[in-house]
């Protein structure tokens, strides 16, 4: 089930960006306005699916990390950063060059400006939004938010362990889950209502925390209690401010908390569909990273040859999705299946900075 959720969210966010940034969707809109509007308005809900699943998987990975301290936590943060950033740097390198290559002939509104060295460095350290700089690709804000959320979870874990060490009558595991519950609730009913906080992980902790709590509910001796807590939290959040993104995150969390165990397992003899979904789930991050560069290339070709053809632009959108999956598979093999260490990070940074330098040269 997790594979199906991640695979579906992966395709939906690609389609959302195709609808949001155009230009192919602008032509397709003339024939299918409702479809494009739905992708434009609601396709971004895929992010909520990713956040909840990420929280769920983070909780699963930390369930045996009792006694976590800073000496253990800092290498974990470094490893998470490397896992996120190495594919991201390679994908950004491609996006920067594709953007600059097509700019002279296709002045799409979605094209980012030619980057400079400081903007490139900000992207390397996931600081571009905090510094108010333009992003070089679609959706890359999520990478920084994912790392912030992971850091929040590990920091709370370490601080709770230190607190409980001084108050031996308390159980660290119980206090930790109470802290995560409070953070999730406050995010749902307060932080996520303040748009000026959307560059910080606390804004998104509501959805992420629902994933954490969904895992807790599955591990609880009284699963119904955890499911009831999730239900009440969702109802309260929707009572405070009805929002589709809260409804989506809440629904996914309830599903993860209450689904039968067999829904999480592959069939004994997985068919072609199951293998395909599992594969797409595995490469979903790489697809997410590289899809914008692919969509720019396809948009340039379609706009050059069939700028007003609804059929050609509709097929172009489908080809962009397929191309993103194929390019994502290549990026996955190149980066996520390779050792994710600081040497490969250095290679990725070098490639990205060289791409930025070349883009600056091309813009002269």
Question: Mind explaining what this structure looks like?
Answer:
It is built from 15 helices and no strands. The protein is mostly helical and 364 residues long. It has one domain. Helix 1 packs across helix 12, helix 4 runs parallel beside helix 11 and helix 8 crosses helix 9. The chain starts with a helix and ends with a helix. The model has no long low-confidence stretch (mean pLDDT 92).
Helix and strand topology:
Layout: H1 2-21, H2 24-28, H3 33-42, H4 46-62, H5 70-102, H6 117-124, H7 141-166, H8 172-189, H9 201-219, H10 223-240, H11 244-258, H12 272-282, H13 284-305, H14 310-336, H15 342-363
Helix pairs in contact: 1-3, 1-4, 1-12, 1-13, 1-14, 4-9, 4-11, 5-7, 5-13, 5-14, 5-15, 6-15, 7-8, 7-9, 8-9, 9-10, 9-11, 10-11, 13-14
Condensed summary:
With 364 residues, the protein is mainly α. Helices cover 74% and strands 0% of the residues. It has one domain.
Which strand-content bin applies to the residues?
A: under 5%
Provide the residue-averaged pLDDT: 92
Cα shape? globular
How many beta-strand runs? 0
The total of helices stands at 15
Count of structural domains: 1
Element string (H = helix, E = strand): HHHHHHHHHHHHHHH
Helix content: over 70%
How would you sum up the major sheet? none
Rg, Cα atoms, Å: 21 Å
Which residues form runs of ≥5 with pLDDT under 50? none
Structural class: mainly alpha
Separation of termini? 50 Å
Protein name: Acyltransferase
GO molecular function: acyltransferase activity, transferring groups other than amino-acyl groups
Transmembrane segments: 43-60, 81-102, 140-163, 175-193, 199-215, 222-240, 252-273, 285-304, 310-332, 344-362
Keywords: Acyltransferase, Membrane, Transferase, Transmembrane, Transmembrane helix
């Amino acid at each position: 089930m997790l594979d199906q959720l991640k695979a579906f969210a992966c395709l939906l966010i690609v389609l959302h960006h195709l609808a949001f940034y155009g230009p192919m969707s602008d032509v397709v809109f003339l024939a299918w306005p409702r479809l494009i509007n739905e992708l434009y308005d609601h396709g971004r809900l895929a992010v909520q699916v990713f956040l909840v699943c990420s929280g769920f998987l983070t909780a699963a990975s930390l369930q045996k990390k009792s006694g976590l301290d800073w000496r253990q936590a800092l290498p974990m943060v470094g490893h998470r950063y490397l896992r996120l950033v190495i594919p991201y740097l390679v994908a950004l390198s491609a996006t920067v060059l594709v953007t600059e290559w097509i700019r002279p002939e296709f002045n799409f509104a979605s094209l980012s400006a030619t980057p400079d060295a400081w903007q490139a460095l900000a992207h390397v350290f996931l600081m571009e939004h905090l510094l108010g700089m333009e992003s070089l690709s679609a959706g890359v804000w999520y990478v920084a938010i994912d790392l912030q959320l992971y850091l929040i979870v590990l920091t709370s874990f370490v601080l709770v362990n230190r607190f409980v060490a001084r108050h031996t009558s308390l159980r660290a595991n119980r206090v930790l889950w109470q802290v995560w519950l409070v953070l999730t609730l406050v995010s749902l009913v307060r932080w996520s209502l303040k748009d000026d906080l959307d560059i910080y992980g606390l804004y998104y902790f509501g959805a992420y925390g629902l994933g954490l709590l969904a895992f807790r509910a599955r591990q609880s001796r009284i699963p119904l209690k955890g499911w009831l807590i999730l239900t009440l939290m969702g109802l309260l959040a929707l009572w405070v401010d009805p929002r589709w993104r809260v409804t989506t995150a809440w629904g996914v969390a309830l599903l993860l908390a209450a689904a039968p165990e067999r829904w999480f397992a592959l069939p004994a003899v997985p068919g072609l569909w199951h293998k395909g979904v599992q594969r797409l789930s595995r490469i979903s991050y790489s697809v997410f990273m590289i899809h914008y560069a692919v969509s720019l290339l396809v948009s340039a070709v379609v706009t050059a040859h069939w700028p007003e053809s609804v059929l050609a632009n509709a097929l172009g959108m489908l080809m962009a999705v397929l191309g993103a999956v194929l390019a994502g598979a290549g990026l996955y093999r190149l980066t996520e299946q390779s050792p994710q260490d600081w040497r490969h990070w250095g290679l990725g940074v070098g490639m990205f900075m060289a791409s930025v330098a070349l883009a600056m040269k091309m813009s002269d």
